[in-house]
Design a protein that fits this description.
single chain; 8 helices
C-alpha cells in the first residue's frame, strides 16, 4: 500500500477517538512537538553556526537536509495536531479527514543518505529521530 493511499483513507470515528485519548498518542504527540522545538532551536542556533564552518558541498547538503527535516516535521506535526483537534472537539472528524488528505507521510527521499553522511552529527541525529517518528506515525496511520 502506498503512503498516499494510506493517508487518503478516512479515519473511523471510534478508532481516532480511542487513539486520541490514549497514552500512546500523548507520548507520540509530546515526542513530536519536542522534536519540532529542539530542531528549530538547533537550526536557528548551533546548527546555523556549524553550517558556516562547512565546505561548500557539505553546506549544500546541510541546506538540503535541513529543509527535508523541517518539511518532514511539519507533516508529522500536522498529523498530530489533527488528532489533538478532534480529541479537543476543535474539529469534526469529517473536517479532520478532509485535512488529512493534505498530510504526506511519505518515506525516505532517494539520494539523501549521501548528504546525511556529511552533515554535522547533531543534524544527523535529528534526522534519524524524525525518520523514526515518521515510521511510527505511518504505522499508526495505517492501523486507523
Amino acid at each position: 500500500m502506498s503512503d498516499q493511499n494510506a493517508t487518503a483513507r478516512p479515519w473511523r470515528a471510534e478508532v481516532i477517538q480511542d487513539f486520541a485519548r490514549s497514552e500512546l498518542f500523548q507520548r507520540t504527540f509530546q515526542e513530536g512537538m519536542d522534536l519540532v522545538e529542539e530542531t528549530a532551536g538547533y537550526l536557528d542556533g548551533a546548527g546555523r553556526q556549524a553550517s558556516k564552518l562547512l565546505s561548500r558541498s557539505a553546506a549544500l547538503a546541510y541546506a538540503a537536509e535541513s529543509m527535508r527535516l523541517t518539511t518532514r516535521l511539519m507533516q508529522l506535526a500536522s498529523w498530530l495536531l489533527l488528532h489533538r483537534a478532534v480529541k479537543e472537539g476543535e474539529m469534526s472528524l469529517a473536517q479532520a479527514n478532509k485535512e488529512k488528505a493534505k498530510v504526506k507521510l511519505a518515506g525516505q527521499e532517494p539520494g539523501e543518505e549521501l548528504n546525511v553522511k556529511i552533515v554535522p552529527e547533531r543534524l544527523r541525529l535529528l534526522i534519524n529521530r524524525s525518520k523514526s517518528l515518521q515510521a511510527s506515525v505511518r504505522r499508526l496511520d495505517a492501523t486507523m
